[in-house]
Amino acid sequence: MTAWPTRKIDTTHLDQGSDSPAHARVAIKAMADTINAMIDAFGDPGGVATLDGSGLHPFRQMRGEVFTASERTRLANLSETTPPPRPAPTPTPRGRKTFTTPGTFYFKVPSGVTRVRTQLQGGSGGDGSDYSRTVSGRGDSRTTTWRGGEGGGGGFIYFDIAVRAGGTYPVIVGGNGANGARGRDGADGGDTTFLYGKAYGGKGGKRAQYNRNGADGADGNSYAPFMSSVSNSSKQVQLVVPSPVSAGYVVVEWG
After folding, report:
1. Neighbour count for residue 230 (Cβ, 10 Å)
2. C-alpha span between 109 and 94 (Å, rounded)
3. Distance CA 120, CA 140 (A)
4. Nearest to residue 253, comparing CAs of 236, 235, 241, 245?
5. Can you tell me whether residue 71 is helix, strand or coil?
6. Strand ranges for the chain from DSSP E
7. Whole-number mean pLDDT of the chain?
8. CA 104, CA 190: separation in Å to the nearest integer?
9. pLDDT tens readout for residues 145-195
10. What are phi and psi of 32, to 5 degrees?
11. How many H helices and E strands in the chain?
């Protein structure tokens, strides 16, 4: 291995036009030896450290002791030009969609959206019918009324979940159950479903009978799909709901 030349050339007899060629010969010979040594050392990792056109030390000139053989091969095959800058990531768009009318609809995920937050509410159950009885006697009458049970509230669920950008998902919004006609129980509320989550409708209240009030309907349960993140399954609202809402609903937000 040829080492980098370290001895400086003596220019004492080379700086004046009147210098004697005989005296300058030794310095000129030393200069030629140094140049030859540099030529011999070209390409030797332990020799001359050449620079490329960008003023950088090429991988091929790095000392072999620093890297393993496989690393030296990989580095030697890398491009020695500056790679183009990566484009900035496209931000996820922000948006919101609500469904507040009972029925079946479809939600198309906007381009670039891969996760949404959603809130579901089931329909409320209807009230059971009242029962009244009038008793007359001694010139007057008295009416006694027993109350039908109140319908239960719709189930509620809030969760966030991964979706497919551009995909279309069905939305079913549950309506409220009808109040019971005379002598009948209230109808159950409709279930609300979206993205495999479900908020069940509340149960209808029971009809009143003679000498007995009707029982209230139970509130609807709910569940979130597998692999979703459930933030709250109580009645506490997480997303803003348009007002007024008379039945079940679905709110979707992203971004």
Report:
1. 15
2. 12
3. 53
4. 241
5. helix
6. 95-99, 103-108, 115-121, 131-137, 140-146, 156-162, 168-173, 192-194, 197-199, 222-223, 229-232, 249-254
7. 85
8. 12
9. 999 999 999 999 999 999 999 999 999 999 999 999 999 999 999 999 999
10. -65, -40
11. 2, 12
